[in-house]
Amino acid sequence: MAKEHKRPDGRGLTELRPMTAKVGVIPNADGSAMFAFGNTVAIAAVYGPRQLHPQHMQDPASGVLRVNYDLLSFSVYDRKKPGPSRRSQEISKVTEWALSPVIDLAAFPSTVIDVQIYIIQADAGTRTAGINAASMALAHAGIPMRDLICSVAVGKQDKALVVDLTKEEEDFEEGEGATDFAVAKVANSDEFTLLQLDGKIQPEIVKEVTRIGAEACKKIYEVQKKALKEVIEK
Ligand code: CDP
To answer: Whose CA is closest to atom 7 on ligand 1?
Structure first.
């Protein structure tokens, strides 16, 4: 059954959209990067570590990672109302949780590392593209990290599992409909830092979702590494 599923753009079930990555796209930031899955384009800029204000929010034992995700008004077909929303707050939070485990925040007590993520064009998978861009931007800023974080959405279309869904695929309604499972993992370990399910999935399939996600993450890691090397070699 799964093998019969045809994707609207003709991709294989576990084939990612073409990926583009570039490091150092915002000269005034301490670190920056762009990451795209097809028509989904994310830009991330890192500022800091710098002293956290107001002072009562400082943690003398650790730095704080503060992410601000923003889907820009004209990034989507139906213009999005500018400014923060419940959705942007949620994505900012899960992005902080996805990235924090690899960052040595204890090395920067009482400080904040600000990560601004802008989605300049959206065709689903924006939180995952944002995490990929932010991970590269943090490395570019010279923040001590034990590894990169790679992220992708695994989806279920009726009964078929597919990787890196487009908006059209997220809106799929046939059979069991569409489920979207965003995963993020530490590139060179089996540790997952984000598993976020939107929809319904049978518990016995979750293991297969993480396996497919981990395979896709290997390809994402290669793209991230190549973009970082290009800047280091310069
Ligand atoms: O982007 P991601 O898949 O991580 O999160 P989502 O909340 O599931 O959003 C899926 C997609 O819906 C986005 O990538 C956009 O393409 C679209 N969207 C939109 O058109 N207008 C919005 N206000 C929010 C999302």
So the answer is: 87
5 inside domain: no
**In this structure, what CATH number is given to the domain that contains residue 86?**
3.30.230.70
Runs of H (alpha helix) within the chain:
86-99, 126-140, 167-170, 206-233
Q: Which two tokens mark 173?
A: 């309604």
In a domain, 91, yes or no: yes
pLDDT tens sequence across 102-135 = 999 999 999 999 999 999 999 999 999 999 999 9
Residue at 107 is within a domain: yes
Kindly state if the Cβ of 66 falls inside 6 Å of ligand 1.
no
Structural domains counted in the chain: 1
Is 126 touching ligand 1 by the criterion CB < 6 Å? yes
Q: Whose CA is nearest to atom 22 of ligand 1?
A: 80
In a domain, residue 59? The reply is yes
- Taken as a whole, the chain contains a residue count of 234
**Contact indicator for 33, 46 with CB cutoff of 8 Å:** no
pLDDT averaged over the chain? 95
Provide the pLDDT for residue 2: 44
The mean pLDDT of 36-54, rounded to a whole number, is: 97
**Taking the model in full, what pTM does it have?**
0.97
- Find the domain containing 156 and state its range: 19-233
